[in-house]
């Protein structure tokens, strides 16, 4: 089905993509037969992933068709939702910013474990590892829900669906939660309750590449533009959850002051059993060798790519278009070498040196 490029409106106004006609003329909207969704590049999906549902306006028009002017105004409002907004200089989703008070007032509990990552650092991977450890390697228990719903995402908000905070509040303890927030934006109660934090860092170059392909396929995010353009966007930190450098430095700097297990994607890749053992000990669990081996196997990239509970295949194509780039894309270390030019690499290395100056963090890949 043809789709208007992100961030632009077709000249005739928004379109009902289900029926490929102008929204204001489309019968399904005017007769109130269907709960319909404003067109543009939103595809009237009826099976939206819960997390994204409220991005999209829904209505049942029983009255006269929308005028071109009204439909343009609605489309503009929707487009505004796609833009990131800032909290203390960090770009976040608009709906997260609207819900900021609730997020900041979240009441953590002392036995909470918070999975923390910069986007595209292996969040899904560590979530699956943690879930398998929590459930003693029981694959069926880990199939109870898609991974997005297993560990509440504390800054996620899509009213009127329950927010990440509301989901966490409804969850029995001990809770496992997740966030992409940098340290300075974390709800203070996590520090006050001396919670456990599990941070996974991934080298900046592979993160950039992974985020670029994710923005290409995620229809709810601004189009990343060309690779050259995205290179600048990423370096300047104008992406969701802000600058990679500040995020990683921030968590690294405080790791010895709190209960933080700081892991590297590259280490998990190189020796998964060893790193999974560290996670197990941090969680206060003791699993025997055979269970550990099973967890290594079940959380391999190859297995997870085929697992519908983690590979995002349940998310509609109108949101995550995996024909553009799969969510489980490559899962390797060093894919940046297939993207960076020699000049980009030299420039990146110099910027990296400046931004990371004074930090003792060391990545095996960089
Ligand atoms: N089991 C696994 N092993 C290695 N990488 C994995 C993995 N599961 C997911 N990933 C990778 O983690 C990245 C997604 O991170 P997140 O879950 O934080 O969004 C993707 O990287 P690539 O785009 O480089 O393939 C994805 O392929
Ligand atoms: N600005 C909007 C829309 C919006 C929608 C999606 C979105 O992207 C992401 C959501 C979740 C993510 O984390 S993860 O679940 O994949 O780990 C990521 I990375 C990107 C964003 I940013 C914004 C709104 O406010 O509604």
UniProtKB/TrEMBL annotation:
Protein's UniProt keywords contain Transferase: yes
Coiled coil: none
Spans traversing the lipid bilayer: none
This protein's GO CC annotations: cytoplasm
Origin: domain of life: Eukaryota
E.C. number: 2.8.2.-
Catalytic activity annotation: 3,3',5-triiodo-L-thyronine + 3'-phosphoadenylyl sulfate = 3,3',5-triiodo-L-thyronine sulfate + adenosine 3',5'-bisphosphate + H(+); 4-ethylphenol + 3'-phosphoadenylyl sulfate = 4-ethylphenyl sulfate + adenosine 3',5'-bisphosphate + H(+); a phenol + 3'-phosphoadenylyl sulfate = an aryl sulfate + adenosine 3',5'-bisphosphate + H(+); 3,3'-diiodo-L-thyronine + 3'-phosphoadenylyl sulfate = 3,3'-diiodo-L-thyronine sulfate + adenosine 3',5'-bisphosphate + H(+)
Keyword Transferase: yes
Domain Sulfotransferase: 110-359
Matching InterPro entries: P-loop_NTPase, Sulfotransferase_dom
Keywords on record: Cytoplasm, Transferase
Pfam families hit by this protein: Sulfotransfer_1
Localization terms from the record: Cytoplasm
A biological-process GO annotation: sulfation
A molecular function GO annotation: aryl sulfotransferase activity
Family note: Belongs to the sulfotransferase 1 family.
Protein name: Sulfotransferase
Native source species: Canis lupus familiaris
Lineage, top ranks: Eukaryota, Metazoa, Chordata, Craniata, Vertebrata
Gene that produces this protein: SULT1C2
């Amino acid at each position: 089905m043809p789709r208007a490029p992100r961030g632009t409106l077709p000249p005739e106004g928004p379109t009902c993509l289900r029926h490929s006609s102008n929204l204001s003329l489309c019968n399904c909207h005017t007769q109130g037969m269907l709960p319909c969704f404003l067109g543009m590049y939103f595809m009237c999906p009826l099976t939206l992933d819960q997390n994204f549902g409220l991005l999209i306006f829904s209505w049942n028009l029983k009255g006269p068709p929308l005028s071109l002017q009204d439909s343009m105004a609605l489309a503009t409002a929707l487009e505004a939702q796609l833009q990131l907004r800032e909290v203390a200089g960090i770009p976040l989703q608009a709906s997260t910013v609207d819900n900021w008070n609730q997020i900041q007032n979240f009441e953590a509990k002392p036995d909470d474990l918070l999975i923390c990552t910069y986007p595209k650092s292996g969040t899904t991977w560590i979530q699956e590892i943690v879930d398998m450890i929590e459930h003693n390697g029981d694959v069926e228990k880990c199939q109870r829900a898609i991974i997005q719903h297993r560990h509440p995402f504390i800054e996620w908000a899509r009213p009127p669906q329950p927010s990440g905070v509301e989901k966490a509040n409804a969850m029995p303890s001990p809770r496992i939660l997740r966030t992409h927030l940098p340290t300075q934006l974390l709800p203070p109660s996590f520090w006050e309750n001396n919670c456990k934090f599990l941070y996974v860092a991934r080298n900046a170059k592979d993160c950039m590449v992974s985020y670029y392909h994710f923005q290409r396929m995620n229809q709810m995010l601004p189009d990343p533009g060309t690779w050259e353009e995205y290179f600048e966007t990423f370096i300047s930190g104008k992406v969701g959850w802000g600058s990679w450098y500040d995020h990683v430095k921030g968590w690294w700097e405080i790791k010895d002051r709190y209960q933080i297990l700081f892991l590297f994607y590259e280490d998990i890749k190189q020796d998964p059993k060893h790193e999974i053992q560290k996670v197990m000990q941090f969680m206060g669990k003791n699993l025997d060798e055979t269970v550990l081996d099973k967890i290594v196997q079940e959380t391999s990239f190859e297995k997870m790519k085929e697992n519908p509970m983690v590979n995002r295949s349940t998310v509609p194509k109108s949101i995550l278009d995996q024909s553009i780039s799969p969510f489980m894309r490559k899962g390797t270390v060093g894919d940046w070498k297939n993207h960076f030019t020699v000049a980009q690499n030299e420039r990146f290395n110099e910027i990296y040196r400046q931004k990371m100056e004074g930090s003792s963090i060391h990545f095996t890949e960089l």
